[in-house]
């Protein structure tokens, strides 16, 4: 597989399928694993990093579940390709910087992604569309077991899996769920919800993980604690919390529909109108407007645009995706023009 | 709209800063935004936060902590306080007395209860692809057999209950 092949593929997390997919975009689990006898990446020598890269890539090549996947050395990729992988949630922003001796393995379906020599030797990620943490946990557990047969992981009975940063020690597991919560935002209840989440030792982030601001009503919620609870317990805790948030968002949508239907219809259709006619548009504005259109589609107010098309627009209007589609480097101003053009084309095509 | 810092290039990055409860909006061009984010990282990163937490662990002899050094990778506790990252797995043994309370503060516990790679290793090859419950079940049944053989009936009874629990699911 080449990077360009991904351009025509719909990422697992953008399929718009799976349980509760009107509110839950995707469910993701990642495991941090390190080889014993090797320093963590930031503390390892160049020769050691090479050895870690060789050992882990050999191990992954021998695992059936990872047969249909591609191993990319980041040193071989250009800036746009790297940003492209970040936009598709196949690797972190941090991983795209200082890329000597880093790599990422991506499976053809974009369900599995493994970063090598990020903060830890291995960061294994499993992505599922919709609200599906248990399935994600099942698959990633099998990959982890298969890897543990070949590789010696750094582990102590009392501290669990050992990681470069003590915040990941223990299970090394982080589960996160990406939610679309427009009704809670519009009804100004979101602060209350986010405060409650923080009190329960969960973190909220934006679309692109650590350090990014929530935009377009998208929130990524994940567990903070990785030590002292078993994997199943951690997953069940997130699951229970997400279930409650889904319920609150559903209620908020019903109240908006019954109390301010016209206002809601107006906002949704105005958003769609701007997307269909704008000549210059930033990615931030695009995300915000698409968020409204997505809500319109969920509520049956927007009939001719399905969730998958909206999801696809979210990703192909991102900077690196636009540049790959155009096959050349574009300045931010050029991108805003191209983006508007692309959105008009996609949305107006649907109207006959 | 032009960049607030250089005033020359169009602003493409929009930043909200909160300092002393005062909210500031900044509109920057790509170049100035890059400088700004580098400066911010220096000011306040996760490593400082962790190092700050580690500072609470000051034992009686400061000297001893700072000079304690991991025999495996050479990282000192002072290094950890500076960068917020440990050097290797062995560091967890070396700095155990300081890390145990730190982990407790971060996670509310310093005792792992999740899965272990060692168990996985001892399973015969080819079982890794069987769903977790099934491998657990087989493992428990083997243990039960052994417990009965050595007449450890209390252990056997516990194992029997666990097996029933899984088979119910």
Walk me through what this model shows:
The complex is a heterodimer of chains A (352) and B (169). Chain A is an alpha+beta fold and 352 residues long. In chain A, 46% of the residues lie in helices and 16% in strands. Chain A contains twelve helices and ten strands. Chain A has an eight-stranded antiparallel beta sheet, with helices on one face. In chain A, strands 6-7 form a two-stranded antiparallel sheet. The mean pLDDT of chain A is 92. Chain B has a two-stranded antiparallel ribbon with strand order 1-2. In chain B, strand 1 (13-19) and strand 2 (22-28) form a beta hairpin. Chain B is elongated, with a radius of gyration of 27 Å. At the A-B interface, helix 4, strand 6 and strand 7 of A face helix 6 and helix 7 of B.
Q: What are the main properties of this structure?
A:
heterodimer, A: 352 residues, alpha+beta, eight-stranded antiparallel β-sheet, two-stranded antiparallel ribbon, 46% helix, 16% strand, globular, B: 169 residues, mainly alpha, 9 helices, 2 strands, 55% helix, 8% strand, elongated
Total number of helices of chain A: 12
Count, helices of chain B: 9
Main-sheet strand order of chain A equals: 2-3-4-5-1-8-10-9
Order of helices and strands of chain B: EEHHHHHHHHH
Strand content of chain B: 5-15%
Q: Tell me, briefly, the overall form of chain A.
A: globular
Largest sheet of chain B: 2 strands, antiparallel
Count every beta strand of chain A, where a strand is a DSSP E run of 2 or more residues. 10
Average pLDDT level of chain B? 72
Strand proportion of chain A, as a percent range, falls in 15-25%
Main sheet strand line-up of chain B? 1-2
Largest interface, C-beta closer than 8 angstroms, per-chain residues = A-B, 52 and 42 residues
Assembly type of the chains comes to heterodimer
**Rg of chain A (CA only):** 21 Å
Distance between the termini of chain A: 36 Å
Alpha-beta classification of chain A: alpha+beta
The outline of chain B comes out as elongated
């Amino acid at each position: 597989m080449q990077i360009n092949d991904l351009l025509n593929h719909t990422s697992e997390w953008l399929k718009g399928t799976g349980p509760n997919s009107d509110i839950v975009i995707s469910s993701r689990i990642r495991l941090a694993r390190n080889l014993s006898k090797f320093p963590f990446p930031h503390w390892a020598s160049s020769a050691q990093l090479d050895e870690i890269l060789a050992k882990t890539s050999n191990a992954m090549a021998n695992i059936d579940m990872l047969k249909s996947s591609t191993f990319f050395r980041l040193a071989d990729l250009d800036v746009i390709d790297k940003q492209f992988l970040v936009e598709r949630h196949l690797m972190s922003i941090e991983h795209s910087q200082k890329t000597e001796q880093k790599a990422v393995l991506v499976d053809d379906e974009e369900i599995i992604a493994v970063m090598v020599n990020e903060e830890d030797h291995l960061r294994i990620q499993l992505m599922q569309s919709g609200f599906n943490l248990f399935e994600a946990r099942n698959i990633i557990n099998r990959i982890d077991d298969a890897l543990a047969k070949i590789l010696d992981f750094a582990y102590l009975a009392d501290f669990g899996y050992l990681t470069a940063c003590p915040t990941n020690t223990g299970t090394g597991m982080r589960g996160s769920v990406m939610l679309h919560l427009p009704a809670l935002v519009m009804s100004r209840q979101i602060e209350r919800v986010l405060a409650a989440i923080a009190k329960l030792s969960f973190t909220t982030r934006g679309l692109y993980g650590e350090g990014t601001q929530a935009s377009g009503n998208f929130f990524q919620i994940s567990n903070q604690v990785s030590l002292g609870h078993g994997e199943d317990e951690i997953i069940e805790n997130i699951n229970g919390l997400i279930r409650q948030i889904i319920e609150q968002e559903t209620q908020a949508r019903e109240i908006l529909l019954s109390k301010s239907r016209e206002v809601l219809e107006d906002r949704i259709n105005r958003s769609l109108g701007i997307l269909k006619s704008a000549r210059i548009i930033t990615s931030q504005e695009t995300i915000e407007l698409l968020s409204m259109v997505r809500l319109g589609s969920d509520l049956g107010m927007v009939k001719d645009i399905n969730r998958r098309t909206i999801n696809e627009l979210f990703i192909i209007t991102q900077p690196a995706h636009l540049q790959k589609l155009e096959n050349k480097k574009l300045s931010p101003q050029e991108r805003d023009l191209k983006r508007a053009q692309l959105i008009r084309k996609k949305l107006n095509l649907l109207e006959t | 709209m032009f960049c607030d810092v250089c005033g020359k290039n169009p602003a493409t990055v929009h930043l909200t800063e909160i300092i002393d409860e005062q909210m500031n909006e900044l509109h920057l061009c790509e170049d100035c935004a890059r400088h700004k984010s580098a400066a911010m990282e220096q000011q306040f990163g996760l490593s400082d936060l962790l190092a700050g937490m580690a500072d609470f662990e000051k034992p009686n002899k400061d000297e001893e902590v700072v000079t304690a050094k991991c025999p495996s990778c050479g990282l000192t506790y002072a290094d950890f306080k500076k960068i917020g990252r440990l050097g290797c797995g062995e560091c967890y043994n070396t700095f155990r007395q300081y890390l145990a309370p730190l982990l407790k503060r971060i996670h509310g516990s310093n005792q792992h209860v999740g899965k272990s790679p060692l168990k996985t290793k001892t399973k015969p090859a080819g079982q890794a692809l069987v769903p977790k419950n099934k491998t657990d079940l087989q493992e428990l049944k083997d243990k039960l057999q052994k417990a009965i053989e050595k007449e450890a009936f209390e252990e056997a009874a516990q194992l029997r209950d666990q097996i029933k629990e899984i088979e119910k699911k």
